[in-house]
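Run log // design_07
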């Protein structure tokens, strides 16, 4: 493992970045700008003397600078100052051609000059967050382009020639003034990522629903009042964002989008959902907030992989019992409804970590909810006995009276062992904990999705306990995995019942489920003996069973490090980056899959608290 980057070096980098952001933020970017039409006097004479790239490409860069206010750009280092355009800010050359042009957030203004069409080797063009008012037809000459970013500009129309960009995989036009798209956009058959949010679309050309490879489609903040049945053709979609429109209904064909992980339908005019919504069994996140819903179809219970469900600001007076099937839910937002009670089945949602209930008419809660993070929980007297034991128990003997996190017998074993200074009883607790949760077996793993299996495989290839002398390791019981392309996240998934194996023999594995974590932290930080926190930590570590570390900013690290916050994969699941932490520092480890096995190619520490 490579040495970690010195803290002073990180601070220097951070301070440099901060100054850049502050300098940029101090210059108003919303008022109209005047284009600079003449080149400044400089050492740069003419493109005829440039040898790094063809003269025609050099002239195209000069045209962009001189016609789009180059002297007023935030970043224009080198532009028309040197005869080495490949070193100009935002220009990347490969094999004697301009390959990338990254001028986002740079205060470009006006019409894009037609000379842009001469940069025919461009693969990435990012002009987002500027003041572009139009694109020339010559944009269609950029046949090698794979990414085109034009979000946050002043575009009101697109030339039909954009359909010539047959190699595009990502196209971003969010936050412009577009009200229509040329039908020819349907020719972009390789497109995977399409951003059209925050425009003025009231309808879209039928051709857009026939893009066979779309995985991400954002149409939020428009004026769409309906969706055609053809939306069901986009069967590769992983994320669909339709929030902040005028939709009053959904076509049944939405149920064809069975690969969806993330569906945003918030802030529309929906009063009901089609039963076909239950076909979207791979959904991880569903946002229905800010509609007119008073009920959910029973088929909602089919969404067994759902982790986030947002139902705030609707008209619910009750919830269907099928909500109890969503056992992987970690977040449930119900605020701003008319709920008078919750179904008993909600007690099945043992993975909940946050519930928002304010703005309802609830008088009591099922006791199972009292142990999770509930906003305004003080409004619910039925939860007070459990809270009272958590916040201020009178003595150690009362500690387990209202404990709901783990079986009372196990709680009493730890407290009694501590009171009596009995090591054997403590070790019996660890034995029961270990036997309560077993590592995932091959049959269980085979039933998981590709990304879940890949997460287990990479974790297994990466993990080696940081404390070699211990008898038991405390492993994380949840992990986040995500798929990203070019630094842009496509979707993420949380595995809440993560039970990886480790290769070291004769080592007990204790999975830190939320119930055990809450219990241990409550035991360490107990009010009845607050001054002896360290004593209880040392007691739990007795016999080199586990290791507990104080957090740099307070609290305690219960996991045996390294802890993995997330694993990022490429879409093909052949490359992975592990983001990990070891006590007060962290880093990244990169893996590639070779002949079916994951191999680490490098690892580096990147931060320190």
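design_07 sequence
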């Amino acid at each position: 493992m490579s040495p970690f980057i010195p803290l002073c070096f990180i601070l220097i980098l951070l301070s440099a970045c901060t100054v850049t952001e502050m300098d940029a933020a101090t210059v108003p970017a919303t008022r109209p700008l005047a284009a600079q039409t003449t080149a400044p006097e400089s050492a740069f004479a003419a493109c005829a003397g440039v040898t790094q790239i063809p003269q025609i490409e050099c002239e195209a860069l000069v045209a962009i600078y001189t016609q789009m206010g180059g002297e007023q750009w935030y970043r224009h280092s080198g532009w028309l100052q040197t005869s080495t355009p490949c070193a100009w800010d935002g220009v990347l050359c490969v094999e004697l051609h301009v390959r990338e042009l990254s001028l986002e957030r740079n205060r470009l203004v006006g019409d894009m000059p037609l000379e842009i069409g001469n940069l025919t080797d461009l693969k990435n063009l990012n002009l987002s967050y500027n003041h572009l008012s139009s694109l020339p037809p010559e944009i269609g000459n950029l046949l090698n382009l794979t990414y085109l970013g034009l979000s946050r500009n002043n575009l009101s129309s697109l030339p039909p020639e954009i359909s010539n960009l047959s190699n595009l995989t990502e196209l971003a036009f969010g936050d412009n003034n577009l009200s229509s798209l040329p039908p020819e956009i349907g020719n972009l058959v390789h497109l995977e990522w399409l951003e059209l949010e925050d425009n003025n679309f009231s309808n879209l050309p039928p051709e857009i629903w026939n893009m066979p490879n779309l995985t991400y489609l954002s149409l939020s903040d428009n004026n769409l009042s309906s969706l055609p049945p053809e939306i069901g053709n986009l069967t590769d979609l992983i994320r669909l964002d339709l929030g902040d429109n005028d939709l009053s209904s959904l076509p049944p064909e939405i149920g064809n989008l069975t690969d969806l992980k993330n569906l945003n339908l918030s802030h529309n005019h929906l009063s009901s959902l089609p039963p076909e919504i239950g076909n979207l069994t791979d959904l991880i996140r569903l946002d229905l907030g800010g509609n007119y819903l008073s009920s959910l179809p029973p088929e909602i219970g089919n969404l067994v992989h759902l982790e986030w469900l947002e139902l705030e600001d609707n008209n619910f007076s009750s919830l269907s019992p099928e909500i109890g099937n969503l056992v992987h839910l970690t977040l449930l937002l119900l605020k701003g409804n008319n709920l008078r009670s919750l179904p008993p089945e909600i007690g099945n949602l043992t993975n909940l970590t946050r519930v928002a209930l304010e703005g309802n008419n609830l008088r009591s809660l099922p006791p199972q909810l009292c142990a999770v993070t509930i906003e305004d929980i003080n409004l619910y007297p039925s939860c007070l006995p459990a809270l009272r034991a958590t916040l201020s128990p009178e003595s150690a003997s009362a500690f387990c009276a209202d404990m709901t996190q783990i079986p009372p017998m196990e709680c009493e074993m730890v407290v009694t062992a501590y009171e009596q200074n009995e090591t054997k009883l403590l070790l019996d607790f660890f034995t029961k904990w270990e036997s309560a949760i077993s590592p995932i077996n091959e049959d269980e793993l085979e039933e998981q999705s590709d990304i879940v299996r890949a997460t287990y495989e990479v974790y297994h290839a990466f993990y080696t306990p940081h404390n070699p002398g211990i008898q038991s390791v405390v492993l994380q019981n949840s992990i986040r995995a995500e798929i990203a392309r070019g630094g842009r996240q496509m979707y993420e998934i949380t595995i809440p019942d993560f039970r990886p194996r480790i290769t070291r023999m004769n080592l007990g594995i204790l999975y830190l489920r939320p119930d055990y974590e809450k219990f241990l932290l409550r035991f360490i930080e107990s009010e009845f003996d607050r001054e002896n926190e360290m004593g209880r930590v040392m007691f739990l570590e007795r016999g080199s069973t586990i290791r507990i570390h104080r957090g740099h900013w307070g609290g305690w690290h219960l996991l045996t490090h390294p802890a993995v916050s997330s694993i990022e994969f490429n879409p093909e699941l052949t490359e992975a980056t592990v983001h990990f932490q070891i006590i007060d520092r962290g880093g990244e480890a990169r893996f590639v899959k070779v002949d079916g096995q994951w191999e680490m190619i490098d690892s580096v520490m990147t931060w320190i608290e």
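The radius of gyration is 29 Å.
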